């Protein structure tokens, strides 16, 4: 009797999920302004959400946003819990060993935000002995490990946590995407506590080649559809229109080969 | 308890377990282990230190918490009771975040705090981890101690009083030892629970065993291997605690 | 819409941009997952207690492995492990019986994880409670010709309830608090909702405290309900 009940319960819980043929897009749960921020009604908003929706529309995909913890995104993708990742994921060779990527849809250098009143230079020597906050599993963590070996690294589950600790005075600096840093420095907390210390030197190996959608390896069909859709929204002006709502310049970066 | 002989079905089960373990060792990828050996040991050290120190500190705090609830002035008893309810009624993860991020968000508005001698500690994450785990242990154990204090037979205390003993002497010589004796059998379980609570500190950037394995997972993009090894490590730690308590109990009963 | 200019009342308002509704939503999800996990956990516990007490030696040893293993590994580790493993395993089973793959959302995974953790503890609670029932009662039922299923439903279950209630109430409280750990895998239950609200508004203390108050209310109300249940169950006992 118990087993029957269990079976009924599980099927009842599973069946509704199995029906609709939707593409599940994985976003991270935490606020990552201005790209994706959850609001009080449970919706995610921001540039990246708008772009993803536009790309989905162009690719004629019915997309459903699923939120997962940032460090659980790639396992969720490989574990077939989501179909692609749209979480400002940089295209790196290291990640290519596990997942594949669409073409890039925006690009940002990495920059350092520092606490006011703390003298530091963005060089390995200048950061020696300083406490540097990075998001775990991010390209910035990899970069800091490779280039600032003498800095004390603190790893946070979200970049928002790192900003919070920079604001609290527990960090000397945090390394993140420049667009994110600028957004934070523009906020009231950011203005109060911190200032821009500048971008770090380029290193495509750790910092990657721009930001793309993460797709399962072997899911070449979806990748192609996304690539075509990205090209389409770039061409038909949707991309620029959405970008204009959030930024006063084109964040696509250098058009690559 | 003592298995002097192994029944055949158990031999079979052990064989099956061995096959599974062998398959796991052979089939899964463990090449990353040597690279992370140091980091894992460091994380393990923090886990063990956190568990031991917070349990001891929490227990010391639990004694007065239990005592005032049984025989303290009303307001104090009320406060202690409220504290225990608060700790036991909310998730530890929330308490950890409240202490770390909640307090942290106040610092910029407290002018003197950065000049104070406390500041070097306030910017680290381990003091918050220590505080949260200690308070949690004290909250749960305080409730247990209350029961233990209340459960010491009244007659023994009255006998001591009639001998003209000072109340503090009674507490030190009779009440407290008898109460502690009563909670000792439950301490094993409490310590295992405390061990299992330590991974939460990884969410405030403390690098314990859990955090180290989190990094391994992210750098190798493997899902099961690091998690299984981590589960095994905690299993072994819990087993060691239980073994230590069993040994202590045996030694105690022999001594009596 | 600057959150900084809003008063506490506006921040906690139920309708967006206030985050009160989001918190209550999170609470609802927490309670649903806790409730589902608790219920399934009780079923697992019953099966476990039954086979630990009267099952074969192999079944008994397997259950012992399950309860010992689950109770010794941190819930956070179990959640991470099971959160990924459960959907894969379930899909494996479903595919092999011909149902085909289904997508298993975080909600179902969360319930199953909580249930597996709860099941281990529930097994022990129920085993203790069943063993405390006087042997004669069950034997009497058998001698009246009741089947073992009927005996379990009519005699064992009601007789063990008073003994099991304190343990079961404790388990329910653990279930509600364990759902908070799902925040770490990105499931937007109460704790993560509070964290999101805190991150978005920068009012960390306010929202984490608000979530704390909600959890506290749940535990106080649950305590009162279980106390009342206990009183009724034991009153029934003493009267007959």
From TrEMBL, chain A:
SUPFAM superfamilies: Periplasmic binding protein-like II. Belongs to the bacterial solute-binding protein 3 family. Residues 1-20 form the signal peptide. InterPro entries: Solute-binding_3/MltF_N. Keywords: Signal. Residues 22-250 form the Solute-binding protein family 3/N-terminal domain. The keyword Signal applies. This is Amino acid ABC transporter substrate-binding protein, PAAT family (TC 3.A.1.3.-).
TrEMBL record, chain B:
Gene3D superfamilies: MetI-like (1.10.3720.10). SUPFAM superfamilies: MetI-like (SSF161098). GO terms for cellular component: ATP-binding cassette (ABC) transporter complex. It holds the Pfam family BPD_transp_1. Keywords: Amino-acid transport, Cell inner membrane, Cell membrane, Membrane, Transmembrane, Transmembrane helix, Transport. The chain crosses the membrane at residues 12-32, 44-66, 78-98, 118-140, 227-248. GO terms for biological process: amino acid transport. GO terms for molecular function: transmembrane transporter activity. The keyword Cell membrane applies. It is a multi-pass membrane protein. It is found in: Cell inner membrane; Cell membrane. The keyword Transport applies. Residues 44-245 form the ABC transmembrane type-1 domain. Belongs to the binding-protein-dependent transport system permease family. HisMQ subfamily. This is Arginine ABC transporter permease protein ArtM. It comes from Halomonas saccharevitans.
Automatic annotation (TrEMBL), chain C:
It is found in: Cell inner membrane; Cell membrane. Gene3D superfamilies: MetI-like. GO terms for biological process: amino acid transport. Keywords: Amino-acid transport, Cell inner membrane, Cell membrane, Membrane, Transmembrane, Transmembrane helix, Transport. One of its GO terms (cellular component) is ATP-binding cassette (ABC) transporter complex. The keyword Oxidoreductase does not apply. It is a multi-pass membrane protein. One of its GO terms (molecular function) is transmembrane transporter activity. It comes from the Bacteria. Belongs to the binding-protein-dependent transport system permease family. HisMQ subfamily. PANTHER family: CATIONIC AMINO ACID TRANSPORTER, MEMBRANE COMPONENT (PTHR30133). This is Amino acid ABC transporter membrane protein 1, PAAT family (TC 3.A.1.3.-).
